[in-house]
Design a protein that fits this description.
Layout lengths: L8 H4 L1 H20 L4 H23 L7 H12 L5 H10 L18 H22 L18 E3 L3 E3 L3 H25 L7 H19 L5 H31 L11 H22 L1 H15 L3 E2 L15 E2 L4 E3 L2 E3 L5 E2 L2
Antiparallel strand pairs: 1-2, 3-4, 4-7, 5-6
């Protein structure tokens, strides 16, 4: 079967690619500028990854509908920020996996345990598909290639054939290391396996020292430094991935993937741009989110909250915290018993 390099704009068109880029950079920005928005950005990114990966699996299992280049571009988009595992593993090896120097132990906004497990399962699924791709899937009838660049070009800080021996070997080593790391992490998370005794002792010492520092109201001096450099590394990785995707599209002469003219392109682009705009808004107007959270908290506690006067607020509206039965708003009172306190 000839390996025609026909582009698939519905899979990785400009709108879809830009949406991924905005979510990647928006997540990093939100961790510093608007931490309250970070869980939403993480969820959106995971959903985008899940949708792209599901599409890839369906197409790869349904006849000769995509080429090796299509699958390669989609895999790079899907893996995206997961490539940040490379410098994290290298740093962990250099520091002896010391928890005090692990940036993953000091996140700007912690993830819930369930979300961590779901993310690890997602990494395992995508990495397993990568293993299939690099160990023979790219040469199957559905993902063709002939070893001399006619099957497509990939990125390894230079232009290389997707099925070049060294390129394939490096990717297989990367996939194996990630699969082992994810398997061990999932096993410990789910209680299937336990780390060695010396690791457990170090973990207990780490938890005790962190707890004591929090009790004293102290902050580890290097925590902010680790967070900063973790963000720098993640930004660098994301930038390299963006360059890799765009150069791959250019090297393979994929036409028709540079336009945003269909709903398949505009919908993800608008959603990602809207989420990024919300992060920027929360960055410049942090008081608005604080009022919203305060209002929701007050409602749960049985209070009524009136907004402050400000942009977009009708005149005469003052902020008032009111107990359930009696409401004070300006000079107007609603009787019903109880006490009220105006702020």
């Amino acid at each position: 079967m000839p390996c025609a390099q026909q582009a698939q704009p519905a899979l990785y068109g400009l709108g879809i690619r830009t949406a991924f880029y905005l979510l990647w950079y928006g997540t990093i920005l939100a961790s510093w500028a608007a931490p309250a928005e970070l869980p939403l950005l993480r969820l959106a990114t995971s959903l985008f990854i899940g949708g792209e990966f599901l599409s890839l699996v369906i197409l790869a299992s349904d006849g000769d509908r995509i080429t090796a280049v299509d699958a390669y571009v989609m895999l790079v988009l899907t893996y995206g920020t997961y490539f940040a595992l490379v410098p994290r593993y290298l740093w962990g090896a250099l520091t002896g996996w010391n928890p005090f120097w692990d940036p993953g132990r000091w996140p700007r906004v912690p993830m819930t345990g369930v979300f961590v497990v779901v993310e690890m399962l997602g990494v395992a699924a995508v990495t397993s598909f990568l293993m299939w791709f690099w160990t023979g899937g790219r040469s199957a009838d559905v993902l063709c290639g002939d070893g001399d660049g006619n099957g497509g070009w990939g990125f390894f800080f230079a232009q290389v054939p997707i099925d070049a021996g060294l390129f394939v070997a490096v990717n297989i080593v990367f996939v194996v290391v990630v699969l082992v790391g994810v398997a061990v992490g999932l096993g410990m998370r789910l209680g299937v396996c336990w780390p060695p005794r010396w690791v457990r002792r170090r973990e207990r010492r780490f938890e005790r020292e962190v707890w004591r520092a929090e009790e004293r109201g102290e902050e580890y001096a290097w925590r902010r430094t680790l967070q900063f450099w973790a963000s720098v590394v993640e930004t660098s990785v994301v930038s390299v991935v963006v360059v890799a995707v765009e150069l791959t599209v250019q090297w393979n002469g994929l036409v028709g993937v540079g336009d945003v003219d269909t709903a398949a392109q505009t919908i993800p682009l608008v959603v990602a741009a809207g989420l990024l705009a919300r992060v920027v808004y929360a960055w410049f107007f942090p008081g608005h989110d604080r009022k919203v959270r305060k209002a929701l908290s007050a409602r749960r506690k049985g209070l009524v909250v009136r907004p402050e006067k400000g942009f977009g607020m009708p005149p005469g509206m003052d902020r008032v915290y009111v107990r359930q039965e009696r409401v004070y708003v300006a000079s107007e009172t609603v009787e019903g018993g109880g006490e009220a306190a105006a702020a």
